[in-house]
Specification:
alpha/beta; Rossmann fold; Spore Coat Polysaccharide Biosynthesis Protein SpsA, Chain A; 6-stranded mixed β-sheet
Length: about 425
């Protein structure tokens, strides 16, 4: 029957976002065939009574079809939300209205009194009016009936594709409360620099790094350098220790990702930033990232090198082609726009990083760069992703630690794996 298979699929899609240990409430019509221990069925009144402990997720299953006043309903939902709460709204595509009516007439579907058949544009307008912001929109289910082999093939592999997703039955919209102007003291920043064979850049980073918060810290994690990078870091930490808070460490494993994770584990400030030690992204650009996250414009801030002209040989032609390919592919997989996934400068709050890290096993642990671990995790959490254009400069010391072909193969492998966990489910 439609109902059993359909609800089973819908639950699996929602659990992409609602993870173990997340708190979530479900708002759905009376009599809805929904049983899921992870989603506590609730009413708006019960939800409002939890204002001291707002949920991580509020799932609105089909309610927009029955509410006489969707705007008032969403306004009431807003009172149940914290800034970090994510709204997951499911609603049917109006293209499927005649098929659903026909299925109801045949007794394949329970008779339901849907009144509203809203479009994507209608939903975005309702969100705007009620101080929510859309983060991600998914189209799911091409075949709501269980047909062995065929149903899962269509729903998992065909429905997510660009043309076919406009024909899907169910829309899943992830939204967040619109950010309010922050009050209180400005947050401080932990800037993490993974440094391997970068001795000539260490002092330049310290001197050029601008102050952003009232008590920022700079964390160097050295990674098995063949030059005197570690000795240079130690000397610089002692030289500038009176004017800068500098933490230093040597990484235990290999790869930038391992170094970044170690640096984030040492961090004590509210905002975490990654700065590449080669300074091809100028340290002077970091306040742009700080402003983007502290103003609430985004929750995961990614640098983009592909907007402004680059200096000389800052990026070779094949690297440019690879960047554009991966940007398009990752945008498709994560459901939010990316122009440059390979820029090393990335920013998020320490609170969100801790949540992301606690569920890292979902995507495995084979990302040597660390960037994609953050991208995939942020996308799954429904964080608002924003890109900040930067001016990409020539390297002035040393040579790149990136191997174009072997690292490109790793990127492709990660992309395919992430697609199986985020898009083709």
């Amino acid at each position: 029957m439609i109902r059993r298979y359909f609800y089973q699929k819908l639950k699996s899609y929602i659990h992409l976002f609602v993870r173990d240990n997340d708190s979530a409430v479900l708002l759905c019509p009376e009599g809805e065939d929904w049983s899921d221990p992870a989603l506590m069925r609730s009413t708006l009144e019960q939800c409002r009574q939890q204002q001291d402990n707002p949920p991580d997720y509020i799932v609105i299953q089909g309610m927009v079809h029955y509410e006489r006043d969707i705007q008032s309903f969403l306004n009431q939902v807003h009172t149940c939300c914290a800034p970090s709460t994510r709204l997951i709204i499911t609603y049917y595509s109006s293209l499927w209205r005649p098929f659903l009516l026909f299925a109801t007439a045949l007794g394949l579907r329970r008779r339901t009194p849907e009144q509203n058949w809203v479009s994507h544009e209608d939903m975005e307008n309702f969100l705007l009016l009620t101080d929510f912001e859309p983060v991600r929109l998914e189209g799911k289910v091409l075949c709501p009936l269980w047909i062995p082999l065929l149903s899962d093939f269509l729903n998992r592999f065909i429905a997510p594709l660009p043309f076919f997703r406009s024909l899907t039955m169910v829309n899943i919209l992830v939204a967040r409360p619109r950010a309010e102007v922050a009050t209180g003291p400005a947050p401080s920043v932990s800037v993490v620099v993974a440094a391997r064979n970068e001795a000539g850049n260490i002092e330049g980073i310290i001197r050029r790094l601008p102050r952003m918060g009232p008590d920022d810290e700079l964390i160097f994690v050295e990674g098995h350098s063949k030059d005197n990078t570690w000795e240079t870091i130690q000397a610089a930490a002692e030289k500038y220790g009176a004017t800068h808070r500098i933490l230093i460490a040597q990484q235990d494993g290999k790869g930038k990702g391992d170094a970044v994770r170690k640096g984030f584990g040492m961090a004590t400030k509210d905002i975490l930033m990654i700065l590449d030690a080669d300074m091809t992204v100028p340290p002077e650009d970091l306040p742009k990232f700080y402003q983007a996250i502290t103003s609430g414009k985004g929750e995961f801030i990614n640098g983009s090198r592909l907007v402004y002209p680059m200096e000389g040989e800052a990026m070779r032609f094949l690297n440019m082609v690879a960047n554009k390919f991966f940007a398009l592919a990752f945008s498709f997989v994560v459901g939010q726009r990316f122009k440059d996934t390979l820029c090393g400068t990335k920013v998020l709050t320490r609170e969100n990083y801790k949540k992301l890290a606690s569920h890292r096993s979902y995507f495995g642990n084979f990302d040597p760069f660390g960037d994609f671990d953050l991208i995939f995790g942020s996308a799954r959490m429904g964080l608002k992703i924003v890109e900040v254009p930067i001016s990409y400069k020539n390297r002035t010391y040393g040579s790149t630690n990136i191997s174009r072909w072997s690292h490109g193969a790793i990127l492709l492998r990660m992309l395919v794996f992430a697609a199986s966990r985020l898009r083709f489910i």
